[in-house]
Amino acid sequence: MSDRRTRTAWALVPIVALIVAACAGAATPSPGGTPSGTAAGTPAGTQAAGTCAAGTTQIEVQSWWTTGGESTGLQKLFDKFNADNPTLCAYNAAIAGGAGTVAQGVVKTRVLSGNPPDSFQVHMGHELLDTYVNISGGSVLAPLDSTIIDPSKFPPGVVKIISGSDGKVYTVPENIHRANVLWYSKKVFADNNLQPPTTWDEFKTVADALKAKGIAALALGDKDIWPYGMVFETILISELGPDGFNGLWTGATKWDDPKVTAALTELQTVFGYVNSDHKSLTWDQANQLVIDGKAAMTIMGDWANGDYVAKKFTNYGWAAAPGNAGLYQALADSFPLPNKAPHPDAVKKLLAFMASAEAQDIFNPWKGSIPARIDAGNPPADAQQYNDYQKSALAEWKTDTVLPSMEHGAAASPAFKTAIETALTAFQTSGDVAGTVAALAAAAADAGL
Ligand code: BGC
Q1: CA distance readout (Å), 189 to 126, 140, 181, 195
Q2: Quick check: CB of 303 below 6 Å from ligand 1?
Q3: Model-level pTM?
Q4: Which of 3, 19, 110, 252 has the most CB atoms at less than 10 Å from its CB?
Q5: What is the pLDDT of residues 297-317, one digit of tens each?
Q6: Which protein residue's CA is at the shortest distance from atom 12 of ligand 1?
Q7: How many CB atoms lie within 10 A of CB 85?
Q8: How far, rounded to the nearest angstrom, does the alpha carbon of residue 123 sit from its chain's CA centroid?
Q9: Rounded to an integer, what distance in angstroms lies between the CA atom of residue 75 and that of residue 73?
Q10: Is the minimum distance from the CB of 408 to ligand 1 under 6 angstroms?
Q11: How many beta carbons lie within 10 A of that of residue 448, not counting itself?
């Protein structure tokens, strides 16, 4: 069987668009509220160094990992690194807000103004390259040499979108997440004698049956718009197919294509089956509705799997989102070295560890994702193991066609993503398909497509 991880599927991510967007500038979400736990002396919005012992070199790693599986995975990784390096102390300076809605703006301001954390969470692809690497004035991140990361241990398609236009690698990918997954409550489906849908037509049949019983078919937590955007992406994939979907990010598929219109119409229909309090919930609160049997399904990245692991919930099933079988819509969380990192030697040590199979197999079983390294996937027997979902993901990553995620930094420049989200936010209330198509086409034009 061929191993897709050794192929260059992600080469589809448009390099032309990367370059164009580098000049267009990235959106800067407002820093918003400061999470509780902020200590005097730490930069606004971050948490304190916590349990770091006095006298250790404290390595501030900024992330948006605050929920169970997310923060646990990173902490386990840091625990091992800190135990092996007693003079160093890596800690998670987390800023709440799923998908980095708050953290990304804070870290961008800090890095570009010369006051960066030692390292930070950033998605590979456009988010990394357009914001920090291929920018006028030169990269604000340091290239990573072979003492930190061995690119031959990562899929070529991944290496391509963690490399700058100079061909050098700029970040350490810690995982591969899958975005286009349908998660469901086995209990709700069994109790109602239903099967999980494989197409959007089947989805409507199932959703009508559930609606008749007063059960929300699809849990949505779009307090921030991105989970709604993820549902839209899965519908675009099912309408356009992999080539058509990829073309949206290269200009090969026009946003006024009739299939985009069909996708918006479908989105509007699907939106009719979500929980009524969706606008007040976060992604993990929506996932809780599935855990509690109050909703049947949710479409979310496989950090939802990490949420189930953390909450010890096992009565769930998963499938590709309707119309997405055989297609692995992917993204990766990664960690770079800012040029002005306060503790560069300590960060280099940490990143070299994070690039190892050992570290990736400590982190990912908790995170819900699979390791980015080709040779990882085998934690020691006494450690947390990959669960059944992750075993299936490890297998499908090798055989499925890989597509990039727009909402999580891989497919589109931050500015283009923000414009799409603005159009989708308006669409939720207006329901104006033609007007939204026009707004999306204008956003693509602004992005140089
Ligand atoms: C990140 C995940 C994270 C999720 C929810 C995504 O953008 O890649 O690591 O779990 O957002 O916050």
Answers
A1: 39, 50, 17, 6
A2: yes
A3: 0.91
A4: 110
A5: 999 999 999 999 999 999 999
A6: 98
A7: 17
A8: 7
A9: 5
A10: yes
A11: 16
